[in-house]
């Protein structure tokens, strides 16, 4: 997408992308592909788009209507094993 950026870390290239609004209108995720092992996982760092230990923090910059579709895009970005 227009908001994608690639960062070469030497042994891998990570992608930084804006999958859509949710917790805020400026949410970013970082996708780190596996290296070294063919069956290694892709890791997706989601920040506040995904809350594990509490209810999501909703504020004036949150987009509740867009959040579910953004989460669906996250699932597609990371693939079935992320």
From TrEMBL:
InterPro entries: RibonucZ/Hydroxyglut_hydro. Gene3D superfamilies: Ribonuclease Z/Hydroxyacylglutathione hydrolase-like. SUPFAM superfamilies: Metallo-hydrolase/oxidoreductase (SSF56281). It comes from the Bacteria. This is MBL fold metallo-hydrolase. It comes from Streptococcus pneumoniae.
């Amino acid at each position: 997408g227009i908001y994608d950026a690639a960062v070469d870390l030497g042994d891998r290239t990570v992608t930084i992308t804006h999958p859509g609004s949710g917790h805020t209108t400026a949410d970013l995720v970082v996708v780190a592909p596996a290296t070294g092992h063919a069956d290694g996982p892709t890791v997706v760092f989601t920040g506040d788009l995904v809350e594990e230990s509490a209810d999501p923090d909703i504020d004036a910059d949150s987009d509740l209507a867009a959040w579910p579709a953004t989460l669906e895009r996250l699932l597609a970005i990371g693939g079935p094993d992320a």
